[in-house]
Structure formats: C-alpha cells, structure tokens
Amino acid sequence: MNLNKRLRKSIVIGLALSLVLPVLAACNNNSEAKDTEQRVLRIATMWGGGDDTWLRQQFTEIFEYTNPNIEIEFVPAIEQSMYGYDQPKQGEKQPDPVEEMKKKLTGPNPPDVVMLDYGQLSTFIDDNLLTPLDPMLTDDKFDTSVLVPAVYEGLKKLGDDKLYALAPTFSSSALFYNKAMFQEAGVELPKDGLTWDDVFNLARQLKSGEGENAKYGFSFNSYSGSDPFYDTIQYSAPLQLSMFDDKGEKMTVDTDKWEQVWSTIVGINNEKLLPVMDDPSKPRPMEKAGSYNPFQGDNFLSGKVGMTIAHYGYINQLIDANKNAEKVEGFKPVDWDVVTVPVHPEAPGIGGNIWMNGVMGINAKAQNLKDAWAFIKFINSEDWARLKSRSSYDLVSHVKYNKPKEGLQYNIEAFYKLSPIPNQDNMSKLYQKMPNLHRVQELGRTKFQEVLKGKKKVREALKEWDTEGNALLAEIKKNPNGPMEGGVGGEVYTK
C-alpha cells in the first residue's frame, strides 16, 4: 500500500507540474469574471482524520490550485486516528461508518460533497440523501457519451436510471493469456465474451505435462496459493447467489444452482485444470537449485498457466518482467494479451469486476451546491482525465484517454466492456451488523474441502451446510458480534 501511495504521489506531482498550466488557462479562458469570494467546500469521507495528503493529491489539489478562493475541508464519518489510542472492549459494538455518514449529512453544518464506495451508493440514494445530478448535467451540456458505459450506466442503475454520483477513475480485471502457449498447443486464441465453459474447454486443450513440469490452462489468479472454495465465490459472484436470506436468519444453499457451482469447481479441480496450492512443507524448485527466481510465486509469468484473471495493475508487472528478462536465467519474455473475464450465460455481459474510485455525489442538504457541482464536474472533466490517464493503477472514465502503455498493443477495452457485478449492499450491511456471519462462510469452506477430498457428495455437503448453517445463524442472532462457543473448521486445503 505504501509503495502504491509513493507511486501515486510521484505521478501526480510530476504530471501536475507539466499539465496544470494548460488546465488553469482553460479554466481562466472560460470564466467571464474572476471569482474572488472566499468559500469552503466540505467533502465527507467514510474514514479519515489526521493526514489527508493522499486524498488531496488524488482528487483535490489541481482544483484547489485553479480555485484559490475555495478551501477544501475533509469531513470523515469516523476518525480513524481514534483506533490508535483506544482499544475496543470485547463484545463492544463498533460504529457503523454508513450510519455515521448519514448523521453527518443530515446534522448541523452538513458537508457538501460525499465520497462513497460503489457498494454503498444505493443506500444513500434510497434514503434520499443525495441530489440528482441530471439537471446539472443538462444545464452545463455535460456530454456523458464520452464516459465508459460500464461506469456511467453502472452508476445510473443504482438510481433507477437517474444519476446521483460520478466516478473519475476505476480499476478492473480481465483475462490475461499467453499467446505462445496457445500457439504451441495449436489452440485458437481467446476472444472477448467467452463463457466460463469456453474458458474451461480451452484450459483442457492447453493442459500438459506432469509433476513439476505440468502446465495448466487456467487459474483464478496469477499467484500460487488459490483456495478452491474462494474460487467458487469468484466464479459465482455474477449469479448473485446468497448463502442466507437478507435478514441473516435462514440458509439458502441447498439448491440446484449452488450444486451446479460447486460441481463445476470440484470437476475442474479433479481434472487438474488448475494449479494446486503449494505445500509449504516442501522446498520449492528455486530453493533446490539455490538460485533466485523472481517469478517463482507467479504462475502466469513462470509459464505454468496459459490464462489467468488479474487486475489492471498486473500489466506493470508484465512490462517490467519482459524488460528485465535477460537478467533471469531461463526466463523468456511473455507474449501476452487480454480479453474480457468469462461470463455466465444466465448473466450475459456481467462480470467486469469494476471498482470505481472517487465515487462522489452531492448532499441533498449541501450548503454550497454551486461549488460542489463545480468540483464534481471538474474531476470528471476531459482535462482532469487527460492528467490522470497516465496512472499505473487506474483507468479513467473518459474512454478516449484509456490507451495501452508504452506503445504496446493489447486489448485495453477488455477492462471495461462488461457491466459491473450487481450491487449487494444489503449483504455488506448485514456483515457490519453481525460480524459473526463470517463463520457461516467458514463452515461452507469446511464442507467444500470434504467434497474435494472425496469424503462427501456435493449435494450431501450442501444439505449439511444448510442444516448446520441454520443452527449457526440462530446462535449468531443471539450473539451477533461477541465471542461464541466452539469454532468452525478452517484448515488449508492441499492436494
């Protein structure tokens, strides 16, 4: 995290020096008269307090530079610094940041702008705490057609086709593939829009070798250490399967759909289409050879898998690895490209795994509505997007400024062709209200491991999870966040 912050800081500072003057000139040219009235714009955040340097560098510095008469003040819903001095007592309920934010928005001296996570936005829309932005977009002739549809439409869906927030940047995942492995196997290269079954069929064709020489077709992530149970969660996320109802009172896993999901992941593990988890008790090949291999823990870079799902920032690792290929004995530069992550036929076009950054709306009780909109419009403008488009970790919401890095040619649209996975904010609120609910998931993980080890059939394990989970939910209802009797198995699964 610290490395990311330093990288972000150096990028912002360097770019600001080279690009802020054109932005400033454009702003001045568009102003009929210089605005000198001193004002304060208050921006509410979920967490904060103390050092707000990163927030200013990321979102407000250029706006403050071009508007010296507007002072930005950050208003955290929860002061993060308080946790450094006061340890919570056992069983003590911790403050809910969402509820604390609502108090800030409706209390005395309310903030003007509110910064949220995408998953929290619908709650504030439903409670009428945000101002619709559509009239302002229309008045200022803000062209939304230039924005990434997955971002713009994803935000509008939460407001029943009304826009209550904008997000200037986002990040996402895509399916990376090794061209050489496909060509060596005589298999057609992947394309955008593949289903999960398509990807698993390609993986079967790529699989070769045994033991340490084995090559696999696919991995849910690039690193050796994937847990098959958590693979089921990633695989099923677009289907919006729930472990229990929206009150956290009744299990919902004894179904045909859950059986299909578990059977699929168990099946591809039994076929050995996925690389197995490393056994920590055994020495790694690099340790046997006594030489350093910087890619030992990366299944994709080490050539062990032909396809993997990875974050946009993974591109930096691929570029760096290829630049330094000659320094690593036996390593050949990876000829790679990307396509959209696999989709389910039942949820076509969904599965983008998009994380929107800087999601901001205007408080319905904003005291400084004019400057609030001016700020949101500014950080979602073309000039701001051009400035931020060189970021190593984020994409910008203006489509035309998302371009491949360092003159490379790869399918960058794969990162934003799909729609975000539908919001499940109610589940997030349940987990905040009843932290012990994580035990239900751990119970499911134990049952899933028993299936992988051949001790139980899929439906048998799901029925047990359903029955034992109902008993656990009843216990959690009595004690939602305090210590509980007994425990739930959580051993690491290895093959």
UniProtKB/TrEMBL annotation:
Record-linked Pfam families = SBP_bac_1
Gene Ontology CC annotation, any one? cell envelope
- Where in the sequence is the signal peptide annotated? 1-25
Q: Does the keyword Secreted apply?
A: no
**Main location per UniProt?**
other
Supply the PROSITE patterns for this chain. Answer: PROKAR_LIPOPROTEIN
Q: Which domain of life is it from?
A: Bacteria
Location of region: Disordered: 86-106
The family database entries (InterPro entries) matched by this protein are listed as: Bact_solute-bd_prot1, SBP
Subcellular location per UniProt equals: Cell envelope
- Keyword Nucleus recorded: no
Q: Which UniProt keywords apply?
A: Signal, Transport
Q: Which family does it belong to?
A: Belongs to the bacterial solute-binding protein 1 family.
UniProt-recorded name of the protein:
ABC transporter substrate-binding protein
Which organism was this protein described from? Answer: Paenibacillus swuensis
